[in-house]
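Can't paste images in this forum, so I'm doing it all in text. The chain is below; anyone willing to post the predicted structure tokens underneath?
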Amino acid sequence: MDCDFSFGPNGAFFAKSDSIWAWSDNNTLPEPLRLILEDPNHPQANKFPYDVAFPTEPGMFSMSWKTVKGEDYYEELFLGPRYAKLAEYMRKIAQNGEHCTRTVFGPDASYFTISPSGFSWQNLPPVLEGDIIGRVKKGHPTAVALGVHGSFVVLYSDGNVTFDVVHHYPAVDAIIRNSAENARRKGISFIALNPHAAGQYYVAYGDASATWNIPTEWTVDVTTVSKSLRPVGSARLVSTLPPTGGFAAGSSQFGQTQTPASPSVLSTGLHAAGQIWHAYQDQQQQQQSSQFSQTTYFDTSNSSPPAFDPSTLQNFDPSTLTAGFDPSTLAAGLDPTNVLNGFAAVFGN
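Text version of the structure:
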């Protein structure tokens, strides 16, 4: 079952099946993510999202997706330094044409993600980490949910479930313990906990039914996505939806993305600056080829020479790029001191 649900800060969410997906509106998404989902003029406009997840810190996200041009991309620039391990894992598996799925974030910079070749995690509750390691020869995790104050649920491929949710998600505890209902619905296939609000959750069953406790304003859109779920083991159907296949919560037309009032100026600027850095790396013959590309070419992890740091562009003014990328207008929108500091960090004094 291709089902995923991510709770984000500030009332954000993203829900998907293998045919449609929905996201929160009202400025709850990080702007770069919203542009990928909604802006048809974005250089890497989304056609199908493989994975979307939100760290608990506002303004951050990770994403893997197929563009309308048929290219596979991943985005790790907006994860921040606390998730350098995940960013490195995304880059590593991309060399084999893989991408993350069912990435989940929790308190204290914890995360868990799944790929075809394995898993990556950090800062998990000790009991959860020990359970995953202890069961590695019996069954692998198919979904992990991280909640408030160390609450968690992990579903395994052999049908086992390990959980600690009774204090903060008592309804989820009751759902998991209701073996008769779970058997009738062909088991629990996916689960997500809201790490920002105790008691909120999303659960999908093997028979394609679902249950949840979420904010009322999400209900219509989450219901629409949930109705498109298919039972475990059923063949994927060809979608009859438009190529983009997604919709923002509260949008007037189901199955169509909202067209922004103006082209994505900020996105254009970021990608133009990224292309400059990419050209430099090519010149130094340090850019490795990959079947799976990044949305930007910034790499803030440790590298040699030192990686370009977007924070040095703190005074960048995207309004200077309204007529397309022009190096002279880009320079006009930067503080010379920050430019010099940025180049010094890359090329040395």
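The longest strand covers residues 46-53. Residues 312 and 342 are 6 Å apart (CA to CA).
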